[in-house]
């Protein structure tokens, strides 16, 4: 079992534990704000399952129907997570509107808040694991799940403070007001998750810093060539695709050109392990006198 799959599997277990705690917190108090927190946790569990499925699909090797692999499956999972977050926010908003017109006094607030705090501590620890592990493993699904949990931790903190104020002041309307604020925060989180995932589905290029590193690596390592042009990059989950045209002297043999390409590929994979690189070798008269000049 890979590290990515282990973390994704752990998310399901952690999500179920947190959901049970938050549901108990709501059951004890009857708070709409705590109900909104529990509803968000149901999304956490569902998206953790979707992320695990997507990660397992993305890990499959290339086949006849998918010659470039299945790496983009993780982006679909992250988009699905964004959609589910937005649906949860709309459900919470509906409960908040109902609470405005039917405010109620909370039951057993202290016990409920302590249980909710315990659930938030678990979530805070796990979102750190997801974001750190997702970046290290270059997994969009894990990073998206981690950012969602981070927004959950922040909103849960606000809910705890607000519910405590509602109990202390006796202002029951604070409870549905907090639920509405949680819904707005979740909507924003869902939009950010979808936006970052759609960039991957649209074959967005690597960052400018990484592009500059790629250019300098080609310039330093392609000794014997003249230039590289039409450099293109895109990323799909943990994989980065790089392709460009490499211009060599017309007297260069096939073996010599192949050696240059091998040297450049090794250097690029040193910066981007697992990168998939395609180099099209061209004779000198194809030079565009632009792009990457070889030093």
UniProtKB/TrEMBL annotation:
Keyword Repressor among record annotations: no
Keywords carried by this UniProt record: Cell membrane, Membrane, Transmembrane, Transmembrane helix, Transport
One Pfam family here: Cation_efflux
BP-aspect Gene Ontology terms: intracellular zinc ion homeostasis
Molecular function per GO: cadmium ion transmembrane transporter activity; ferrous iron transmembrane transporter activity; zinc efflux antiporter activity
Transmembrane segments: 12-35, 41-59, 75-93, 113-131, 152-171
Span of domain Cation efflux protein transmembrane: 11-202
An example Gene Ontology CC term for this record: plasma membrane
Protein localization: Cell membrane
Topology of this chain in the membrane: Multi-pass membrane protein
SUPFAM superfamilies cross-referenced by the UniProt entry: Cation efflux protein cytoplasmic domain-like (SSF160240), Cation efflux protein transmembrane domain-like (SSF161111)
Cation efflux protein cytoplasmic domain span: 207-284
Keyword Transport: yes
InterPro entries: Cation_efflux (IPR002524), Cation_efflux_CTD (IPR027470), Cation_efflux_CTD_sf (IPR036837), Cation_efflux_TM (IPR058533), Cation_efflux_TMD_sf (IPR027469), CDF_Transporter (IPR050291)
Primary localization class, coarse: membrane
Family: Belongs to the cation diffusion facilitator (CDF) transporter (TC 2.A.4) family.
Name of the protein: Protein p34
């Amino acid at each position: 079992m890979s590290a990515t799959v282990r973390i994704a599997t752990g998310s399901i277990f952690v999500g179920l534990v947190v959901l049970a705690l938050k549901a108990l917190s709501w059951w004890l108090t009857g708070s709409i704000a705590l109900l909104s927190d529990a509803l968000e946790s149901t999304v956490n569990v569902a998206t953790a399952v979707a992320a695990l499925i997507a990660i397992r699909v993305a890990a499959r090797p290339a086949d006849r129907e998918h010659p470039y692999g299945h790496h983009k499956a993780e982006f679909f999972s992250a988009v699905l997570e964004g959609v589910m977050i937005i649906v949860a926010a709309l459900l919470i908003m509906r409960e908040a509107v109902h609470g405005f017109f039917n405010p109620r006094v909370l039951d057993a607030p202290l016990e409920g808040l302590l249980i909710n705090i315990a659930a938030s501590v678990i979530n805070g620890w796990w979102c750190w694991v997801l974001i750190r592990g997702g970046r290290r493993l270059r997994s969009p699904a894990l990073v998206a799940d981690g950012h969602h949990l981070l927004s959950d931790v922040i909103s849960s903190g606000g809910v705890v403070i607000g519910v405590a104020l509602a109990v202390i002041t006796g202002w029951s309307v604070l409870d549905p007001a907090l639920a509405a604020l949680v819904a707005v925060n979740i909507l924003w989180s869902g939009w950010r998750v979808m936006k970052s995932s759609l960039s991957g589905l649209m074959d967005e290029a690597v960052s400018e810093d990484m592009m500059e590193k790629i250019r300098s690596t080609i310039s330093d390592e392609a000794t014997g060539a003249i230039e590289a042009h039409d450099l293109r990059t895109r990323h799909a989950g943990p994989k980065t695709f790089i392709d460009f045209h490499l211009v060599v002297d017309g007297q260069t043999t096939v073996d010599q050109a192949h050696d240059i390409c091998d040297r450049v590929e090794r250097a690029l994979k040193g910066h981007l392990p697992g990168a998939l690189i395609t180099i099209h070798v061209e004779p000198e008269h194809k030079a565009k006198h632009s792009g990457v000049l070889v030093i």
